[in-house]
Amino acid sequence: MIIEGALMLAPLIVSFIYGEELKYKLAFIIPIIALTVLGGLMLKPKPKRKSLYQKEGFALVALVWIVMTVFGAIPFVINGDIPNYIDACFEIMSGFTTTGASILKDITVLEHSSLFWRSFSHWIGGMGILVFVLIFIPESDDGSSMHLLRAESPGPQVGKIASKMKVTARILYLIYLCLTVLEVIFLLCGPLINHDALTDAGYSSYEGDKLFHALLTSFGSAGTGGFGFIPNSMEFMTPYAQYVISIFLLIFGCNFGLYYLILLGKIKEVFRSEEFRCYLIIIVSSVALVFVNLCLRLESLGYSIEEAFRHTLFQIASIMTTTGYSTTDFNLWPMVSKMVLILLMFTGAMAGSTAGGIKLSRIVIAVKGTFINVRKLINPRYVPKAKFEGKSLEEKTTNDVFSFITLYLFILLTATLLLSFDPISDVNEHGFFSNFSASLACISNIGPGFEAVGPYASYADYNAFSKLILTFTMLIGRLEILPVLILFNPRAWKRV
């Protein structure tokens, strides 16, 4: 809570820089004071036991994310940018979980401090809130820090890349920070926003905000979040900026452990990574398939060949890394292209990245596990020899992956069913495909879906009940199910 209050100083400074009204400054001053005081009071009682076991570590992670959301929504309510508290919780949960789904129909109504806080929440949640906290708190000798990292870091297998947990957290965040700064520099080196196109479309120009927008873009790219800050997401960005963003999205979709290997000079080991090779193959094949499909419809879509390639590369990078930025309305794309995007919504990028989704490592393990089971049915004496990342694939790992995918699909279908209770009169507006893609976009932390929740639409028309369901679904997706299930399991709260 104290660290969240400290992080709110950043948008408060932005509010002063842009000379915003007093209510926008108070919107951050009030929660900063509240968080600092409450957090300070909660530090007073000293627990009898400081060690954390696995169930406590998992429950703590889920609880921390809920607390961050409860307080993180307050600034939007105080300044009036999002006066409804449930809407504000949806928005900031979407930010922290790097989902990018928004209830705002008109992004131009937000002041600079609110825009900054939304996008900054992507950067905070991208690498993980408690991974950031681990940098500052003393490291225990009982493995408590490892339980926190396992609960918050994406992927089926989580490990340290250095001998100490604190060192691991520092290395991860240093790589994360350096890549973010590098993207900001690249964006500042060329034209960022197509101001003429923006003005022709009837919107105000943003001539003096280049550094500000470069920061917001990089926050969203680094956290693979995707909150827009100008109309129509990234449509009015220049081709140069769109190519830069596409490349950095793919970079942030990689396992950060691979970048540590590069720093150590072990480049050959990077290309030995089975998941990394699958990542490259899927990107190249998806771009090729969608690009060819769009080239067959250039006239109806109004694209040039270069535009078709640029939109293809951008959307594949954005959807596969579960970022959710868009440069065009892919609702208008042919069905083949849309099906490719839907499949990428499920897979996500690499484990150990800031992306959401099931993760490629789980997909690879599930495929290998399925083949092993088929071979066993054919030949009961068959001894599995499957490997993943150079290590023997244990039966427990395969079973854990199958369990995760089963829970993932069950929660996805349950959320879709619950959304059907939304009292919308026009069935075509929020039909099954809209509700299914909304649930998929939230559990995979992507943001935009299809039809009524497409790239140029919002989640504003859902009622409060549906927004709470989707808010909870985002949290489940970001923390990969188990921490949330453990938090709300009564047995987790019993003394052992």
Tell me what the structure shows.
This protein is mainly alpha-helical. The chain is built from 24 helices and two strands.
Write down the overall mean pLDDT: 88
The largest β sheet comes out as: 2 strands, antiparallel
Helix and strand sequence: HHHHHHHHHHHHHHHHHHHHEEHHHH
Strand arrangement across the biggest beta sheet: 1-2
Count, helices: 24
Structural class: mainly alpha
Beta-strand content bin: under 5%
> Tally of extended strands?
2
Q: What would you call the shape?
A: globular
Low-confidence stretches: 424-428
User: What is the CA-CA span between the terminal residues?
Assistant: 28 Å
Share in helix: 55-70%
What would you report as the Rg, rounded to the nearest angstrom? 22 Å
Topology of helices and strands:
Layout: H1 2-7, H2 9-17, H3 22-42, H4 54-72, H5 74-79, H6 85-96, H7 112-127, H8 129-134, H9 144-152, H10 165-188, H11 195-200, H12 210-222, H13 239-252, H14 256-263, H15 267-271, H16 274-295, H17 298-301, H18 305-320, H19 335-347, H20 360-378, E1 387-388, E2 391-392, H21 395-419, H22 432-443, H23 464-478, H24 482-487
Antiparallel strand pairs: 1-2
Helix pairs in contact: 2-3, 2-7, 4-6, 4-9, 6-7, 6-23, 7-12, 10-12, 10-13, 10-14, 12-13, 13-18, 16-18, 18-19, 20-21, 21-22, 21-23, 22-23
